[in-house]
Design goal:
Chain A has 326 residues and is an alpha/beta fold. In chain A, α3 links the parallel β3 and β4. In chain A, α1 runs parallel beside α11 and α5 packs across α7. The first copy, chain A, is globular, with a radius of gyration of 21 Å. The model of chain A has no long low-confidence stretch (mean pLDDT 96).
């Protein structure tokens, strides 16, 4: 069996996943381009391989069709928007993922992005490095109404991190019905439209699906407070990038922090907006979480190769989402 | 009575402090230079005024001597290193401050700076805005040993904020004996040398005094872990700036976040270091804390002017610190 590792970097901070493959005498190739592959690049590479240890590159019906030997896709991460699950199932290809590993890193980064935006940290830093000194006013988390849309593994951790800040009001919403968090004086479940209207900080922790694609466009952005901030560390495409650019350019919203993009690497007009804090899809990139993701995905690939019971097959409801929506 | 307001901005986000002065028919002048005054500038301005509503500009023996009519100094903030308290007392000048107001803003910013540094947020942001895409590995708060030096109003809030992150080890130290926080499995009081040696993140929440001036120089920085990060949102001068520059330049320490400087506005060689996150003394600059500081300082000045009992005179131990050290 031959394994194609498309996600990069891989095995860089901790060699263990590569060691695991080598100990089992598995031939592997790491993505030679060193960046996210396009559909065509992947389609060209895939015919030779039995297993893909995959990042977020598009594993479309076409790619899967080209993968004549392909038997298994092991996603390093949680999002499945990049994989055509139905096509994989129709061709008998197993798909696994690592749903728990990224959460601690994404949720911490989200809190850091909130405070940076509220206090204009990145702007002050850029100005001082360029030789000018400006003191910016800001706001504190505890004064703000915070809206969390998506209360799965990551959103619920964001809520927990906020517990040490004494926030006055936290509004929760999810596209799936998993209302397993109790309301309190400061924590309320609401419609997402209430979050758009009332929150000072809006943070998204959703999968990218038919239903969440372009969930937040010009119209939704304009219903937000003029001084609201919005954070997306989940998936590109949920906030419409061009609409966000237009709205920020016209001084609606106080700022945005965007870690995920329609196309990555991202080169687009948000680069020209100072109060748009941009990071390079680094949500899960803490050494420990990334290592855990790589190890889990590799172990699952090895279980498949050795005909052992797989432990983190993508569950049925992820297939339903792709077939029918949420 | 005439009031000189040296701290800027003042009354900008909330006009109430200016309204209070106007309602009491008090003549006031706001620092016409719009930036932190030097000793000589202040000495030239001060002779005409009875009260200073002061920022962090140097209110030295010489300034106080020039202030022939000066009767009261009302500091907007907590630090008193800028005021020669002994000289003020010897001339019968009352000094007040606002010790509680800045803490919530400084402590939140500190958490934001920790996460930004750990995850290279400001570097990724700068790179993307300049057209390049780099994914940086980082670490999480909960993996790190965190050292807090200074457990007064601000340090203890930092500790509280960290409670929602599940940190594995938090080491505490203070130059004054106020060990009012209980140890636990994860929280320990230690010598500051232990913090230098063992912490992954070191954050300072100390006053600037004879004893803390240059407390952290080359030698101390080099005893820190090669990949440690250090944060100073307290007072410039506690970390020696030139030594920090040399050490960062030689790739010891993973990064630093500095909000306070020997001379402000700061223009110095830390500007050339990408992994030195620089902010413009914005610790207390949340709108609510800054407003509260300005109102409290103005109300205290008005109490003095109207011969009412003052409520936040600088306590005796601050005078002792300036006379004898900590």
């Amino acid at each position: 069996m031959k394994v194609l590792i498309t996600t990069v970097p891989f095995g860089k901070k901790n060699r263990l996943p590569l060691d695991l493959l080598e100990k089992s005498n598995i031939d592997y190739v790491i993505n030679p381009l060193g960046r996210k592959l396009t559909e065509n690049e992947l389609a060209e590479m895939v015919p030779d391989f039995d297993v893909i240890i995959a990042g977020t590159e598009p594993i479309t019906d076409y790619v899967i069709e080209c993968g004549k030997k392909l038997k298994m896709i092991s996603r390093v991460g949680i999002g499945l928007d990049s994989v055509d699950l139905i096509s994989a199932r129709n061709r008998g290809i197993a798909v696994s993922y690592t749903p728990d590993a990224p959460a601690p890193a994404v949720s911490e980064l989200t809190i850091g992005l909130m405070i940076s935006l509220l206090r204009s940290v990145q702007i002050s830093n850029m100005k001082i490095h360029n030789g000018s000194w400006n003191r910016y006013f800001g706001r504190r988390l505890s004064e703000c109404t915070i809206g969390i849309i998506g209360m799965g593994r990551i959103g619920s951790r964001v809520l927990h991190h906020l517990s040490g800040f004494g926030c006055k009001q936290i509004l929760l919403n999810d596209v799936r019905e998993n209302y397993n968090i109790n309301e309190s004086e400061t924590i309320k479940w609401v419609e997402k439209e209430n979050i758009y209207n009332e929150a000072d900080i809006i943070t998204l922790h959703l999968p990218l699906t038919k239903d969440t694609k372009n969930m937040i466009c010009r119209e939704e952005l304009l219903t937000m407070k003029k001084d609201a901030i919005i954070i997306n560390t989940s998936r590109g495409g949920i906030i419409n990038e061009n609409d966000l650019y237009e709205v920020l350019k016209n001084d609606h919203l106080e700022g945005a922090a965007i870690d995920v993009f329609d196309n990555e690497p991202y080169f687009g007009n948000l680069q020209t907006i100072d109060n748009c804090l941009l990071t390079a899809h680094m949500g899960s990139m803490s050494i420990d979480c990334r290592t855990r993701m790589e190890i889990e995905a590799t172990e699952e690939a090895l279980r498949f190769i050795k005909n052992k019971k797989m432990l983190s097959c993508v569950p049925e409801d992820e297939y339903s989402v792709q077939e029918e929506g949420l």
